[in-house]
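Consider the tokenized backbone below.
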């Protein structure tokens, strides 16, 4: 019979090849552990407190103390694709016994594996189906925690039913279009819109909705918005891809987008309040925060999606100011690099 042992602390799954960003956040934002000089490629390494252990890209921290309040998304590390909030050890004798024990706890489970891949696949086959393949946008993501488990050996797993992500292992991958989008940035807005719908229940942009994209060149985000049928005011110093410049539902303006006042934008789009305010501009986070607050104070945007581009070391007190914005979620997207994305529902 399967045996469950509840554990203390939290386990954090780093995004692929981003363990350094996760550990830097744990040390710099939460004061958990420290970054020290060492004989590594970049000359640095992470020294955790206590008896933390790595299992592939999964870091289990038994002594990580942190209160979980209402907004779980903004209170745990952004650079973890998902967090195992209530971890436990499951000991079992067979594949069927492992699957049955997980199903008794909840329906939705996804694996993270760094070893024993075949055995994990056999367990997953006996669990209720979830889509672990690449997805075709647009996609509906249920807003309920996705359980996570990983095999430590052939009869022991580390698992948690409660996580902070509705995605399998906290990640989504889309079928890529290598011909039509002007840039790969289109994947970021597809992921952002999917999460926005899951977190806030807001449908994707649609025909007749008004969007303002700051720093739109070459047009990856605008391309997605047009695929969904929305009208776009695209502002940048350089023009968009020719196909978008010829689109009658795209109004291009050569201008510094951050100097346009909300009332000017709404006038150009012939509306009192735009449906979507978007930015993937390379700028200092402090300037982006000021611009977002300008729009919120004017109450001229219903939904906001902006990339927070980091300039060197992350200023965590400044990121905390973003997190204070009501009805907001800060995420690190699967398609982000050294950056974060803020989602705000202002309605």
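A designed sequence for it:
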């Amino acid at each position: 019979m399967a045996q469950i042992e509840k554990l203390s602390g939290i386990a954090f799954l780093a995004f692929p090849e981003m363990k350094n960003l996760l550990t830097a956040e744990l040390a710099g934002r939460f004061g958990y552990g420290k970054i020290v000089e060492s004989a590594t490629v970049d000359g640095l390494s992470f020294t955790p407190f206590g008896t933390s252990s790595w299992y592939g890209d999964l870091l289990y921290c038994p002594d990580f103390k942190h209160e979980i309040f209402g907004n779980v998304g903004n209170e745990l590390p952004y650079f973890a694709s998902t967090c195992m909030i209530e971890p436990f050890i499951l000991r079992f004798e067979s594949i069927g016994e492992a699957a049955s024990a997980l199903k008794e706890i909840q329906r939705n489970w996804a694996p993270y594996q760094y070893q024993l891949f075949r055995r994990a696949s056999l367990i997953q086959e006996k669990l209720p189906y979830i889509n672990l393949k690449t997805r075709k946008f647009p996609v509906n993501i249920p807003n309920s925690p996705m359980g996570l488990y990983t095999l430590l050996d052939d009869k022991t797993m580390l698992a948690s039913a409660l996580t902070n992500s509705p995605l399998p292992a906290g990640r989504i991958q889309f079928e890529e279009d290598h011909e039509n989008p002007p840039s790969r940035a289109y994947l970021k807005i597809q992921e952002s819109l999917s999460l926005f719908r899951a977190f806030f229940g807001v449908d994707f942009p649609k025909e007749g909705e008004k969007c303002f994209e700051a720093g739109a060149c070459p047009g990856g985000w605008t391309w997605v918005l047009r695929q969904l049928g929305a009208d776009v005011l695209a502002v940048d110093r350089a023009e968009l891809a020719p196909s978008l410049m010829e689109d009658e539902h795209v109004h291009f303006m050569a201008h510094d987008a951050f100097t346009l006042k909300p009332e000017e934008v709404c006038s150009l789009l012939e509306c009192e309040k735009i449906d979507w305010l978007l930015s993937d501009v390379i700028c200092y986070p402090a300037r982006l925060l000021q611009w977002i607050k300008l729009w919120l104070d004017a109450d001229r945007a219903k939904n906001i999606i902006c990339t927070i581009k980091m300039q060197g070391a992350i200023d965590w007190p400044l990121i905390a100011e973003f997190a204070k914005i009501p009805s907001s979620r800060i995420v690190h997207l699967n398609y982000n690099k050294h950056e974060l994305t803020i989602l705000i529902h202002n309605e």
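DSSP finds ten helices and 18 strands in the chain.
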